[in-house]
Amino acid sequence: MGLGDQIMASGMARGAAARGKRIALGDGRRIVWEKTSFDIFRGNPNVAPPGSEGAPDLEWLAYYKGHRLYNRRVGDRWVWNLSFRAKPGEIFFDQVETAAGMRHGESFIVVEPQSAQWKTVAPNKDWGVANFQAVADRLRGLGLRVVQFRGEQSAVALRNVEQLATTSFRDALAILARASLYIGAEGGLHHGAAAVGIPAVVLFGGFIPPAVTGYASHTNLTGGAEACGLLKPCKHCRAALARISIDDVFNAALHHLRARGGEAAGRTGT
Ligand SMILES: [Zn+2]
Fold it and tell me: What is the pLDDT of residue 263?
């Protein structure tokens, strides 16, 4: 999958076309894209697709599957590169995608209670469906519209939370671009929220450090843990997630919604 990885790559490539360059993601000889690269980079003028090796405008960046710059594998864990900083990515929607992204309206809160359950690390990033349900219930109690995406690999559906059908990850991001807030685990959608300029409350826990794959515009909750990078179920990660309270997430959500409300008021006032 690696959707988040491709979105981070789009952040690294940002601005290349403006200086007459394209970023070649690969080993210096071969551009290495995955299926998700084609999805995320569609329409992006800053990256060079496979087949353009040898073009005169390339800048090579050694960022590809198995060589991600922000981590390296040592035994059964990731060791994080603490000098790496994710920059917000970019998704270049075409007119059809942008229009489709508006079909569910706007100013809703997207909650994603589970992320990439097929990965062995999933338990180390799982805050718990019941906790997300409690946050959703409290937000709904304030009269706010809370939604969740339904796609092919959708997580469990939260009760009383509007389920928005999506046709692809890009479609989900086009809808997310109309949201007022994202709440969920560290993963593809938190990278997506940063790319479409939406604030987020991100449940990091103890697996991966926000300093590496988090964004300054988001609230990144670790439960006070140092990131371990362990790829098998980890007590330390479980304890870190357990220290993040429903209040922590709810209050961070309100903080972002108020900040955004202020912005909107500012816009209409001028
Ligand atoms: Zn851990």
Answer: 63
For the whole prediction, is pTM greater than 0.85? yes
214 CA to centre of ligand 1 in angstroms: 17
Cα-to-centroid distance, 242 and ligand 1 (Å): 12
Q: Domains in the chain, ordered, with CATH?
A: 3-69 (no CATH), 97-269 (3.40.50.2000)
Residue 20 Cα to ligand 1 midpoint, Å, equals 43
pLDDT digits (tens, 9 = 90+) for 93-148: 999 999 999 999 999 999 999 866 777 788 888 999 999 999 999 999 999 999 99
- 210 Cα: distance to centroid of ligand 1 (angstroms): 14
The CA 27 to ligand 1 mean position distance, Å, reads 31
**Could you write out the three-class secondary structure of 99-132?**
HHCCCCCCCCEEEECCCCCCCCCHHHHCCCHHHH
Distance CA 78, CA 230 (A): 6
